[in-house]
Amino acid sequence: MGLTLTEKIIREHFVAGSLVPGEEVAVRIDQTLTPDSGGTMVCLQFEAMNIPRVRTELSVSYADHQTLQVGFENADDHRYLQDIAARYGIHFSRAGNGICHQVHLERFGIPGKTLLGADSHTSTGGALGMLAIGAGGLDVALAMAGNPFTFTMPRVVRVELEGKLGSWVSAKDVILDVLRRLTCKGNVGLVLEYGGSGVATLSVTDRATIANMGAEAGVTTSVFPSDEQTGIFLESQGRGHDFRRMEADSNAVYEKTIGIDLSVLEPLVALPHLPDNVVPVREAAGLPLDQVFIGSCTNSSFADLARAAAIVTGKLVAPGTSLVVAPGSRQVFGMMARSGALAELIRAGARILECACGPCMGMGQAPCSGGRSLRTTNRNFAGRSGTKDAMVYLAGVETAAASAIAGVLTDPRVLGDPITIPVPPGIEIDDRMIIPPPADGTSIGLRRGPNIVPLPSFPILADEAAGEVLLKLGDNITTDHILPAGAKIMPYRSNIPAISEFCFQAIDEKFPARAKAAGGGFVIAGFNYGQGSSREHAALCPKYLGIKAILAKSYARIHRNNLINMGIIPLLFGDAADYEKIAPGDRLEIKNLFMGIEEGRLNIHLLRKDGSSMTAAVLLPLRNKEREILRAGGALNCASSKRQEAMQASALPVWEGFRQTGNGMIHDPPEDGAGRTESPVPD
Description:
Blueprint lengths: L4 H8 L1 E4 L6 E4 L3 E5 H13 L9 E5 L9 H17 L2 E3 L6 H8 L6 E4 L13 E4 L2 H8 L4 E4 L2 E8 L8 H12 L7 E6 L8 H10 L7 E3 L4 H9 L19 E6 L6 E3 L7 E3 H4 L6 E4 L7 H11 L9 E4 L4 H10 L1 H7 L3 E2 L19 E4 L15 E5 L1 H10 L27 E2 L29 E8 L6 H4 L13 H4 L11 H8 L2 E4 L12 H8 L2 E6 L4 H9 L3 E5 L13 E4 L2 H7 L1 E7 L5 E7 L4 H9 L2 H15 L8 E4 L2 E4 L16
Parallel strand pairs: 3-4, 3-6, 4-5, 6-7, 9-10, 9-12, 10-11, 15-16, 15-18, 16-17, 18-19, 21-22, 22-23, 23-24
Antiparallel strand pairs: 1-2, 2-8, 5-20, 13-14, 13-19, 21-25, 24-27, 25-26, 26-27, 28-29
Helix pairs in contact: 2-3, 2-5, 6-7, 10-12, 10-13, 20-21
């Protein structure tokens, strides 16, 4: 029996566990990436491990999300990230160099390698034949420390592409078609592996769009073969030596196969407020648009922006519509300028933004009140744009550019003959905005702004838990519901007490105060709880506010992992009908939690506000590693305890700055004030 490409890469990096789908497997991680939106917390966690230098082949820190500087916080964090990178052996991509996924694709991705990133769209690397997985920040910090990444051995689904895309149809329409078939929920534990004769017709940047948005389906990642197109791309980047042909065996066995005929696809659009709410553009055409945004990690390559420029050449953006464009990288920006495409966008009235994530996560360019915004981004969750009542639509570049000129949602096929894309200029390789680390960074001091505060300490797990049901939620609750992004909130990402004040703000502005007054408690949810971003703050903040457990019908993969890493119990309803029997204000009691962790099931006792009570069976399916983490009260506690045991066993001193208490491992950083410079970390 042959192997899928996914299985081949996992076997090459196998450390422990089982290669049987659904079982626990641990793999060696070659590369990591951290955007600044989660990177500051990753670095604080890595510091707490007291490891003198990263232990991966390559780790890269990117300043790409938090580049809107309306206060000192983001600038301070970038300075701290640059210092951390120099001290611990991490490459640092400066603000202005581009979005992590686009830059990593251009400069660092290698076929057959494993990549773990603190961003859910790390799956973009699958376009190069990598096993690229988004994860919570603590998982990435542990990988940087040399620990393997443990996850569920995936079931692999083959996406068989045949034919060739027609005029005015793009890779964005391919992934929107996949999403309307698979939906955004129910795909945990799957990998989408693309194959078929149609793959050869897609460039690496086409594949990147598809792999990137696979994250919206909730799969572990997406993988393309490494073939001639991969070789062409790497040669263009001056990295032909990194090319390695990789593909699945012809007799590989898949969970199932999804067939897509590229030649019959038409322009598609995702309607508010989920990426799987997909219809043909022609069915929704004519909707007035207040804003069009072209860019983000999904559609900001030279090919994407050059197509947009060709469509708007000689035209002007509609009077009632704002067109904003953000190149994905400094390299793309330079190519746009040299080709003349940038000038055409400017002539048409486009507003050119810096090479960053920007509007995708509500970091600037929020739509008007109740406005309609058409975007080439990957998510259209309610409120994510920065405007609570905005209606966000997702489509490809062709649809976006045609709609910006018309002022209404427009099927680009009405433009007639296909556009001619300018021949791309030669790529000018310029890595000066990427700072490599020195061979020895132990003398580098760390400058911390006043907004960078020590990690909160969390207690080890108790065998019993009790508290109030503080919140009851429905299906498809996203990480943006739990802890919003945006220019007002995300600057506090290195300050857990401050950012926790925004927890569940989109649903209940008084939640943080209620949670603290109640001494913590429980949250009840429906299907697909925690979908969307890998933002570990969506688990850190509830933990800080005293949330002991979530009881849901199902979870999104990354968020469930983050809950466990923070020591929050991810319970599942044994009987979905019990969801209707619980109301906010009821009291939950759990006993024999340790036994439940081992057995994968336990009983909860519910005392209702009216005085009645009931007992319900709930499930707690856990992998071996997850049991260990929960018993310790979280992944950092677990790693700290193991490190301490190993040092004591070898007669080495325990970690400097750590002390063991009844509440777990506590880290006491030096208290020498904001902006302090620390002495080198001892080996």
